[in-house]
Amino acid sequence: MEKTIDIDKILRDKMGDKARFVPSPLVRWLKHIVHQNEVNGFLWEHRELTGVAWLEACLRYLDITLDVQGMENLPAKDDGKLYTFVSNHPLGGIDGVALGTIIGRHYDGNFRYLVNDLLMNLPGLAPLCIPINKTGGQSRGFPAMVEAGFNSQMHMLMFPAGLCSRKIKGKIHDIAWTKTFITKSVESQRDVVPIHFGGSNSNFFYTLANVCKRLGIKFNIAMLFLVDEMYKNTHQTFRVSIGRPISWQTFDKTKTPKEWAQYVEDKVYEL
User: Fold this and answer.
1) DSSP for 51-73?
2) If both were cysteines, with which of 36, 128, 134, 270 could 31 make a disulfide (CB 3.0 to 4.6 Å apart)?
3) Inside any domain, residue 184
4) 11 and 80: one domain?
5) pLDDT score of 58
6) What is the distance between the alpha carbons of residues 221 and 183, in angstroms, rounded to a whole number?
7) In which domain, by residue range, is 130 found?
């Protein structure tokens, strides 16, 4: 079986000869927390699948059921228009797979995600992705890649927070949404479809993320646990609420793009 996820190789690639000094218990723990064997088993078993078929296989594997409200708000696939779909990001994994499945089925796979470039390592997912680097600074090619996505003939699916939700003042909520989806939707004359995904990660995840923030740790340590959180959320039903499209002409000069992003974010949490 080919190892798509290989912690040993990642450490060697990142650290070179120094990788041999990483304590073996730590390496074993990393393999455990990212579920290396389970994930590689799934990827190998479904190596012939790509795109929406691969997303559907993920949902079956994780035994996820979707309770979708507002399907009638999804614009017809033959209306000749392109749309930007935006959602909150409570889980960091299953929500992306689920929304890609819903949008992909409805539009015959004619959409693209703007995603963390690490996800390009998943062969079944990569064809649906426009990679952006969220683990460090923005990659130099970020503006050009976003531009190309919005200028394409594909619908765009985005999580404008960029990171999965955090616990803020006792509530699970996205960090502030970035304005990119507003500016690019206006430039490309795409209406925006708001979507709310119901769900949460474990208390441990949110505590870890908040502790790291308070300590000023810039590396997103919580991200290491997202696969583990995904496995904790198996065998569940998640509610997905799709709102009515918001015309791109709504986003006029009465508010800044950042304020309009907040407006859409608020609309999402009202769904």
Assistant:
1) HHHHHHHHHHHHT-EEEEE-GGG
2) 36
3) yes
4) no
5) 93
6) 31
7) 64-270
